[in-house]
Amino acid sequence: MTSDPLAPLLDLPGVRDAADRARDALSAVHRHPANLRGWDKTATEASWRAGRSSAAIDGGSVELRRDGDFDDPLLAGAMRVAQALDGDALDQLTGVFRRAPAQAFARLHMLAAADLVADPDELGRPSVQPGVAGRLDLLGQLITGATSVPAPVLAAVVHGELLGVGAFPTANGVVARAASRLVCTSSGLDPHNLGVPEVTWLRRLDDYRSLSTGFADGDPTAVGAWIVLCCEALEAGAGEARSIADAARAG
User: Fold this and answer.
1) d(CA 86, CA 134)
2) Residue 4 forms part of a structural domain
3) Which residues contact 144 (CB under 8 A, 6 or more apart)?
4) DSSP letter assigned to residue 126
5) Model pTM?
């Protein structure tokens, strides 16, 4: 019997291969000439695309005002999260995530939900629904070393768990997708946050919603399919990163 609680996921159909493809694609895009020295610029563009797509997944606007502000509170929150996943702010948040995932989740919620709650005291506070605290504690243990599964698989589990458990009363989608990104940065899978998997999740929104629900319900077929979807999004997100890098080099 294995001591790694996530190890059996690697035996689900397609999971191992999908994780390998995601890893290889992200590794390759980090070697793109534009990303060897100019990754700070391409990462910023990636964060903006990710923030807008993440808001749109949950029904938010993607319209940016000329003054740089946002009329839609969901988009505003998603873009604050995007900024926290870029540059020096990313380094700080990744460090917190490695040591104390719950603190990082709380920080993400404070950014994502600042314009969505009437009571500021609700920001960063997990739901008090039964079972939530225990699930978040287990998730924290997985992130800090209780599993050795490939990072794309762990990212999918963290993403699906935060969506399924309803970790916070609001903005769970934005928080979950950002937490998935933090798995990628903290593990070295995508250290500069160049990938944009959110674009694929938005394009495949029906699959995203149905499979995340199946993951939360624990259906084995849906669990495997959810992980594969997330890995495919990471792989395609590397393609999005490549297009950003190509444009930066051409410019």
Assistant:
1) 30
2) no
3) 98, 99, 101
4) P
5) 0.95
What is the rounded average pLDDT of the residues 200-229? 96
In this predicted structure, what is the pLDDT of residue 125? 94
Q: Does residue 248 surpass a pLDDT of 70?
A: yes
* Structural domain includes residue 1: no
Count of CB atoms situated within 10 Å of the CB of 102: 18
User: If you average pLDDT over residues 124-147, what whole number do you get?
Assistant: 94
Supply the DSSP string of 153-222, one letter for each residue: HHHHHHHHHHHHHT-SSS-HHHHHHHHHHHHHHHHTSSTT----THHHHHHTHHHHHHHHHHHHHT-HHH
Distance CA(231)–CA(223), nearest Å, equals 12
Distance, CA of 206 to CA of 212 (rounded, Å): 10
The CATH number given to whatever domain includes residue 86 is 1.10.3290
What does the pLDDT read at residue 69?
Answer: 65
Q: List, for residues 185-202, the tens digit of each pLDDT value.
A: 999 999 999 999 999 999
Q: Does residue 7 lie in a domain region? A: no
Q: Is residue 3 part of a domain?
A: no
How many domains are there within the chain? 1
Instruction: Note whether 108 and 81 are within 8 A (CB).
Output: yes
pLDDT at 66: 57
Q: Which amino acid is at 18?
A: A
- Write the CA distances from 176 to 57, 168, 198, integer angstroms: 12, 10, 11
Residue 67 pLDDT greater than 60, yes or no: no
Q: Which domain holds residue 93?
A: 12-59+67-250
Query: What is the spatial distance between Cα 91 and Cα 185, in angstroms, rounded to a whole number?
Result: 9
